[in-house]
Amino acid sequence: MKIALTYNLKKKDETKPADYFSEYDSEETIGSIVSALETKGHSVEAIDVEYPKLFSYFRKNRVDIVFNIAEGKHGKFRESEVPAILDYLNIPYTGSDTFSLALALNKALTKKILKAENVPTPNFQVFSKGTEELDPSLRFPLIVKPNCEGSAKGITKANVVSNYKDLLKKVKETLNSYYQEALVEEFIDGKELTVGILENGKARALPILEIDFSNCNNSGEYFYSWRMKEYQGNRELGLVPTFHCPARLDAPTEVLVKEAALKTHRAVGCLDISRTDIRLDKNNVPYVLEINPLPGLDPKESNFPIMAYADGMKYEDLIEAIVLSASERRGLN
C-alpha cells in the first residue's frame, strides 16, 4: 500500500514553554514507524503537518491510507485537524475520527460520559474563572489539570493540593498559563496503570502496564507528572520508574481494569487504538483518569509498545495491526 505518515515533529525552541512540544513526536519515533511500514512492504512518505500546503498535497497525491499520529496545531480541537482534512477529501486514515479525538482531549466532557456509562472516574469540578466555590462533595487531596492538554502538560507534583487556598492558587496558575478551563478532581492514591486497546476486527485489551514510582523517591515525584513523562529514565534526576507488564494484579482485578478500559474506548468512540490511564484505589476500584486515542508509539520509550511486546508482538507487527484494522474498517483489504 501507498501510505502517508502525518506527524508533528518535536522541536527545540527556547522562546517556548518547556512543555510546549511535549505532545509531538521525535525523529526517532517517525523513523521507526516508517521503517516498520516499509518492512511490511508498504511505500511510505512522512509529512510534517506544519507543511503549509497540506490540503493541496493530499488533493494532488494519491495515497491508499494515512497513518496519522499528528497532534494538530492550535486550540482544543487540534487533534481533529488532520482527520477533518482527510474526511473532506475522503481519504482513509488510521485511528479515531474527528469527534472522538476532540472529545477525548476534553477531560471533563469525557468524564461526564464515563459517569453516564457507570465507568468509575474521580469526582471533579471545572473552573473557568478561578473564583468559583468548591463543590462541597469533593474531598482533598485534589489535583488540578489543564482541561484540554495531553502528555501531562501543566501537571507537576505541586498540582496535588490539600487545602482551598492552595487549590485556588494552582487553578489561577493553570488558567493564566494555558488559557483554558482547569479540571479539579479528587486525587486517587494507588497503583498507576495504563491499558492499551488494539482493534483488529474486535477490540481487545493488551496486557496491563503498571508504573511503579517507588524508585523515584529522591525526585519527589510519585505519579505520572509532566516531568516524569518528559525525563523518564533519567537517573540523575531520579526519574526511573519500574514497569511491570503484566501488572501485579489478581485475576478479578485484572478483569475489572480491562473492562473499564474497553468500556472507555467504546464510550468515547475510539477506533483502532487507544490507551486508557487508570488509578487503582485501596479497594481495587479502577478509576479512569483519561483516554488517549493517539498514544505514543516510540518503540523504546512509549507505554503502548511495551504492552504490545508483552503480548508477543514485534514493533512492526503492532504498526501493521493498526493499518490492518483501519483498512478493514474502510473495506480496503
Per CATH, the architecture of the largest domain is 2-Layer Sandwich
Q: What's the tally of helices?
A: 10
Oligomer: single chain
Rg, Cα atoms, Å: 20 Å
Helix-strand makeup class: alpha+beta
| Average of pLDDT | 93
End-to-end Cα distance? 10 Å
Number of strands: 13
| CATH evolutionary superfamily of the largest domain | ATP-grasp fold, B domain
Percent helix, as a range, is 25-40%
Largest sheet: 6 strands, antiparallel
In brief:
The chain is α+β, with helices and mostly antiparallel strands and 333 residues long. It has helices at 27-39, 54-60, 81-88, 98-105, 107-116, 164-178, 226-230, 251-268, 303-310, 315-329; strands at 2-7, 43-48, 65-68, 124-127, 142-146, 160-161, 182-186, 191-199, 203-205, 209-212, 242-244, 273-280, 286-292.
